[in-house]
Amino acid sequence: METLYLAIVLAPLLGAIAAGLFGRQLGRVGAHRVTIALVGLSTLLSLYVLWGFINGTRPVFDDTIYTWMVAGGLHFEIGFMVDQLTAMMMAVVTFVSLMVHIYTIGYMADEDHNWPSDSKLGPYAYQRFFSYISLFTFAMLMLVMANNFLQLFFAWEAVGLVSYLLIGFWMNRPTAVFANMKAFLVNRVGDFGFLLGIAAVVLYFGSLNYSEVFGAVAANPDQTMSIIGGAEWSVVTVAAILLFIGAMGKSAQVPLHVWLPDSMEGPTPISALIHAATMVTAGIFLVARMSPLFEFSEAALSFILVIGAVTALFMGLIGLVQRDIKRVVAYSTLSQLGYMVVALGVSAYAAGVFHLMTHAFFKALLFLGAGSVIIAMHHKQDMFEMGGLKKYMPVTYWTMLIGTLALIGFPGLSGFFSKDAIIEAVAHSDRAGATFAHWAVLLGVFVTALYSFRLLFLVFHGQERMDEHTRGHLHESPSVVTVPLMLLAIPSVLIGLFTVGPMVFGGWFGNAITVLPENDVLSAVGFETVVGFILHAFETPAIYLALAGFLTAWFLYVKRPELPAELQRRFPLPHRILERKYGFDELYLNGFAAAGRGLGTLFWRLGDVRLIDGLVVNGTARTIGRVAAVMRHAQTGYLYHYAFVMIIGLMVLLTWFVFAIR
Amino acid sequence: MLESSWPLLSVLIWLPIIGGALIFLLGDDKADRARLFALIVSGVTFVLSLGLIVGFEPGTAAMQFVEKTPWVEVLGVNYYLGVDGISMPLVVLSTFSTLLVVIAAGSKIQYRPSLYLACFLIMEGIMVGVFSALDAILFYVFWEAILVPMFLLIGIWGGAERIYATIKFFLYTFVGSVLMLVALIYLQFQAGSFDILEMYGLGLPLGTQIWLFVAFLLAFAIKVPMWPVHTWLPDAHVQAPTGGSVILAAIMLKIGGYGFVRFALPIVPEASMELDWLMIALSLVAVVYIGLVAMMQQDMKKLIAYSSIAHMGFVTLGFFIVFEIVVRTGGADGALLALEGAMVQMVSHGFISAAMFLCVGVLYDRMHTRMIGDYGGVAHRMPVFAGLFVLFAMANAGLPGTSGFVGEFMVILAAFQANFWYAFLAGLTLILGAAYTLWMVKRVAYGEVVNDKVDKLEDVDGREKLVLGVLAVAVLWLGIWPAPLIDIMEPSLAHLLEVVTDGL
């Protein structure tokens, strides 16, 4: 069994090494064939593992692969834990990754044009890209399959590294290399909390291994520690919040969300794979995996709930004013991640993870669809220069429509089930902050429908606003692009229908997710049949809010397309606030970053140069220089007077020391 | 104590020293022959040093490969060598770094090449001597002797302001070592011997211990270097030739760290405990203050020099948090983790700083400037170099999977056991380290090709690829599987911890 899991993990790594180090020898076709074959293998095996869990024949696996080190009595290991939650994540990661691999053949076909002709990076950029996405797949699999905190942190940073490399893939673009550094640094702020959280776990629960830690937590959930003054804090709460800060970085929750929109500087396939479907959901996975720990902290869960609710609503609002097609989808991702976090916050982990899965399919679909549009538009991304693309790109249009309907929660589609489960769970929760969260996620539904259809109408309907040259070349994308779109559309429609029962309400996750009986909101929601769940939705406001969002978008962008500009003129302030994204970027750049640089300059110029060197060191040197200048009359030569000073000094000190101490 | 049938340590000390002297005598007329000879000597020395690993008896804290003969009998000074799990990795690191420097030097040094190579070989022998000396006077001799070749390296092959840098370097380190000699002589009176191991556990009164500690502190803190006695390092690095910087960062700084763990902690444990707050504070200042200073550097070598100081902060932090951990947790496990983390950090920093300085050397050889502002878009012309540069930069930023992560991770985990705020401040390196390193990478390697000089850059040649490739393997190996190194060090560090925390 261990071999099977190793094969799943190592196949993409092998592909990454082959395409990365031997890209020249393999050539373009060789590189994409090798990586796709190996990721394909990994996908098939992952589906096989998942199937084993679905029909109940596969046992939970939890074992060490090798010992990284043993230090100070603590075991640092690399090992796998494969249960239902892992199996689902593996299937999602490998499947979306495979689709993205195939899609990339089309998207990166004319990659040479993205590089200056004399750059030595251009010729093998295609192979390098495949290497990176395979490497990412490896790292992401290591993340979801970890059975301990060390490996989790390893993989956590490794996916961050690949994200960094891919956002800055077109490294001749200043915006891209700014965005990748920003992404890495903001994530490092999260990882800072994460690392402290791991340290807390090690100190108070004595292990890095999940099952041992969870056992220790359950055995003794009421430990306290003091951080400031005499106040005692619950250890579980402190550890949980610190770990969640890591999740906030990776899953781009307010206020650590600022990197995700900028990450759109990277090529679109990785926006779909890394910055929508998989890596950014690592934080969600983390909390679900750690549910045996988070469950014991009401305070931490409330914190999570509020952060998620703020992200879900306020990031969605920014999506309303974006002009760049990818950025709309990016803000939508932020908002949907907020929904997942809200679910975690009310202990509805299964619902959060379920939304993670459905979102992975339809959001990857939307991103890849946006990429298809971008190919057709010759890498122009401003939606106000598009319009009427429906007739040129029918496959892209229809698949994106499916993705959009899934996203806004059209009854019966995958996103409907996951979002409704979350909203219902919040409604049934009495946790502190739940009322606010309920309002936020409900309003979020309206906002989601509005920005989603705004995108669809601006891009595919209405007037054709592009220039003549672009219009002349408009055509549907090649099949390597459209086939992944169609393949992703299938689960976007169907997956919820078949899985909502067992996954969210049927306890399919088994022991992979722990919910204390008093926190079990999903049971309170109740679920009998899929049809009943759909019919029940018509008695709740969410579905009408989505409809209202759709109608508003239709009115503003199809019926009266001159209205948005008019509204913007009438109400400049809200628009400005949203355009400025609430000022987070300015605060970080002019606040924290500037303060860091200012302090650095101060310490350097004043501390090191003026005080230590100027006053102490050079002062001493000058004094010695003066003494030496006097002695120069007696001595000749350069080294001698140092030797002389040395000996005299030594004698004085020795004499003094012997007399003083003996 | 494990005697050696074959004086391996002596060979590792004297082979390069004699070899270096011969190369110097060979003269500069036959430079190629000198280079080949230097390569052979350093290669053989390195291969022989691997014998230390092969023949090392794991699972014991005893000194191994011991050699002991009377040297100056009147004063009770012995020629006394031996290594344990603490010093052995540092010996091998020394021979490894020297070999890399000799390979990397190639024919790049045109001015007096044989003297240049001789300096490195002689320095190699001395470094092995420092790490393996078990007699205090022998240690002191090696300790002082190392200044001479380094002084020459910076003074002869250095940059424009080399005189200022050498004098500063010399003054700083000299001031430090004089007090240490006094302390060692005093200890001889107390222990009745210059045997370092016999100086352990003397049970000196606290007041005396504090004086001794201060004497050690000055010597070792300057070498590490710790804030505020660090300002010699950036200047020395900036002026030193590439090879000099590599040895300076990879080995010389480790001598300071080694001093703390071999002398200060076990000889004056109560003073170490009494003053641990000071050491912890200075270490954290190194991480945060120096990290911020590093971010603002315009000169790549200065930036890496400051980053070295910040990283060495983890070494001293790991050494001096042990007391609080033992007091607070009541067990030795966390303290052992701290010591091991500090030692791993020393070895790892040896690899990474060597690699970073070699990378700057590669660029400097082509562009004759170290200023970040003169670069931009290097990756477009030097893709292989850029790949390696980013790898080492990530290691410098402590990315898991590279050696840079291991020591910092261990020390932060341990620091949390001493005090939440130690871990908090030390953990800031995650952000600061990434900020100063990646900002440099961004400005140097990424972006458009900024000027004609960058436009004409050639990628790394075979020799450079070899040297950087070997370091890349080392950095990744230690990051992916540090267990072998830990297993070598653990018994010695556990024993040390017993000595240090005896009676706590």
Would you write up a description of this structure?
The complex is a heterodimer of chains A (662) and B (504). Chain A is mainly alpha-helical and 662 residues long. In chain A, 72% of the residues lie in helices and 4% in strands. Chain A has helices at residues 2-21, 23-54, 84-107, 125-145, 149-167, 174-205, 210-219, 235-250, 259-262, 268-277, 282-289, 291-294, 298-319, 325-345, 349-376, 394-408, 414-428, 434-460, 468-472, 479-505, 521-525, 530-537, 541-559, 563-570, 572-579, 584-631, 639-661; strands at residues 61-71, 74-82, 224-226, 232-234. Chain A has a two-stranded antiparallel ribbon with strand order 1-2. Chain A has a two-stranded antiparallel sheet with strand order 3-4. Chain B has 504 residues and is mainly alpha-helical. In chain B, a hairpin with a 4-residue loop joins β1 (64-72) and β2. In chain B, α1 (8-26) runs antiparallel to α2 (31-55) and α10 (242-267) runs parallel beside α23 (483-500). The mean pLDDT of chain B is 89. The interface between A and B is large, with 67 and 81 residues.
List keywords for this structure.
heterodimer, A: 662 residues, mainly alpha, two-stranded antiparallel ribbon, 4% strand, globular, disordered C terminus, B: 504 residues, two-stranded antiparallel sheet, 2 strands, 74% helix
Q: Figure out the total of helices of chain B.
A: 23
Computed structural class of chain A: mainly alpha
- The H-and-E topology of chain B, N to C, reads as HHEEHHHHHHHHHHHHHHHHHHHHH
Total count of helical runs of at least 4 residues of chain A: 27
Helicity level of chain B: over 70%
Number of strands of chain B: 2
| Order of neighbouring strands in the sheet with most strands of chain A | 1-2
**Assembly category:** heterodimer
**Main sheet attributes: strand count, strand direction, barrel closure of chain A:** 2 strands, antiparallel
Strand order of the largest sheet of chain B: 1-2
**What is the total tally of β strands of chain A?**
4
Task: Classify the beta-strand content of chain B into a percent band.
Answer: under 5%
Classify the secondary structure makeup of chain B into a structural class.
mainly alpha
What's the helical proportion of residues of chain A? over 70%
- C-alpha termini separation of chain A: 72 Å
Strand content of chain A: under 5%
How would the global form of chain B be characterised?
A: globular
Largest interface chains and counts:
A-B, 67 and 81 residues
Task: Report the uncertain regions of chain A.
Answer: 657-662
CA-based gyration radius of chain B: 22 Å
- On the 0 to 100 scale, the average pLDDT of chain B is 89
